[in-house]
Batch of 2 targets.
Target 1
Amino acid sequence: MNGKNVLAIRTLDKGVIQQLVDIAGDLKREVLTNGWAPRARRRTIGLLFFENSTRTRVSFEQAANYLGYTTVNFSGSGSSLSKGETLKDTILTLKHERLEALVIRHSSSGAANLAAEYFGGPVINAGDGLHEHPTQALGDALTILERKGTLTGLKIAIVGDVNHSRVARSNAWLLSKLGNEVRFIGPRTLVPTHSSFLPASTHLDLRSGLAGADVVMCLRLQRERMEDGMLSSVGEYTRLYQVNRTTIRAAASEAIVMHPGPLNRGVEIDDFTADGPQSAILDQVTNGIFVRMAAMQWIFESDQVEVLA
Ligand code: CP
């Protein structure tokens, strides 16, 4: 079986990243403008969501639908994990249920790598703990390319709870690999302040970090992953770091605003900015479908989807 995986942007070749974004753009044009009727080899893909999800889960399902694949949905609750079965034995069981690829979301960093080790076939990481969310970053890259006309030479400001964000990590790797300047902005407790090996500079002041930014990427305050004392108060965080109709003026006048979702409206972003013309948030959602199609097609490299005229 093919063992190609999409586990992390950090380890993905720059050429493959560009190829996946290009394929996603082509697939999007085909689906949205031409009559889309795939003729792919039949495949059965397991969608394993051990953590909650709306956007990622639905877009993988939708991507599989467009490609003509069959999906098997699996969530931790209601499974034999509740009887003490390990993740390793769960993965081995699914392999012997003859699933041909896995998509996995899990709260533990490294769970997707473990799945790849025991599954032995293609695995796509749909977000693992604090590690990475590679297909989110690929979708964000397609969105930036569409809105800014380029994927290089841009100033990217990633604002908020960076330390708990797998999206921030995947985006920092992807956007720096493609030749952009990446800045993390947030309070000392939520951004890397010592050598993190992540390819980004750190800014504790919102306005100076946003100065001249072409892309402003807001992050959700992940209170469920925070230890007590990381924030003095949500109110203070909002006062100092919210991206809103006033603070966005520090960025470039044509800056776009992004957010991977789900949003804490009124905390990291205000309604005006989330819903205004600069917002690319719903484009990110739609593009998630097409990069996931591209990723699935890539892991089954022989599955060149043919479009019927
Ligand atoms: N961006 C993202 O991963 O959203 P979901 O948690 O809804 O999938």
Note: DSSP finds ten helices and nine strands in the chain.
Target 2
Amino acid sequence: MSALTEHFRLTDGRSIPKIGFGTWQTPDDVAPEAVRTAIEAGYTHIDTARAYENEAGVGTGLRAAGIAREHVFVTTKVPAQFKSYDEAKAAIDTSLKELDLGYIDLLLIHAPKPWPQMFTDGAPRYFDENLDVWLAMEKAYARGDVRSLGVSNFDVADIQNITSRGDVAPVVNQIRFHVGHTQPAVTAYCQSHGIVVEAYSPLGTGKLLGQPDLVAMAARYDVSVAQLCIRYTLQKDTLPLPKSTHAEFIRANTQVDFLIADADMATLDALTVS
Ligand code: A2P
């Protein structure tokens, strides 16, 4: 078995490929070729968002790749700044139209707060507003336009707000997760409640690639730092979403069927990355 062909089981009964292809910061005109290359390399899971402004390009790339719709898993997200039922409904309709793939496999709330407030102390929590967004997502789920629902950048209280008040439980929380940034509290909460943790920026948006400790460890395993970092997230039972626009990186990032020894995992767990 290869990590590329394995799946996590979701609590709604569906399954999700264990590695996804990230498209954050991939321009719409670059996305078709990147996505087509990813599918050719064996990815069957593509992650996009309304906010990335590349859903049309992702859809075009998937159609160009010629992969059967049911053999690919596509995630998109309701923008963080939309915090009402009507705004969420409009965003979902636009995503469905832009992707033009018939349905969305997984729809996430992109963040619990609008981005300008995400990292501001004392910002409001938007609990009622996120529930309104969730209700619009549940409607799309009931119609069959969306097959699974989840969240992104949520902390434990944000998740509990949805699980205690919504009808459908989130099956995924997509968070920033990489060597040196593992968000232990929310990760442990999700994993103990069957919520799959998706790791965005598994390479620290590229910042980890020149880190001397990682360069030395990767050399011992005869892999690249990117491969070491992706493997690390898999061994932490998270679902990595490596992003690249270069064919050789896209392909190399699928070659992660080696095992990081426990002692090295402990070293990576303890690494602080500046
Ligand atoms: P590019 O998009 O120019 O191909 P993350 O997934 O953590 O967000 O990191 C994405 C960044 O890492 C991008 O700048 C991407 O470059 C770069 N990258 C992705 N895969 C590799 C790789 N195998 N080797 C080197 N750089 C990579």
Note: The CA atoms of residues 22 and 243 lie 4 Å apart.
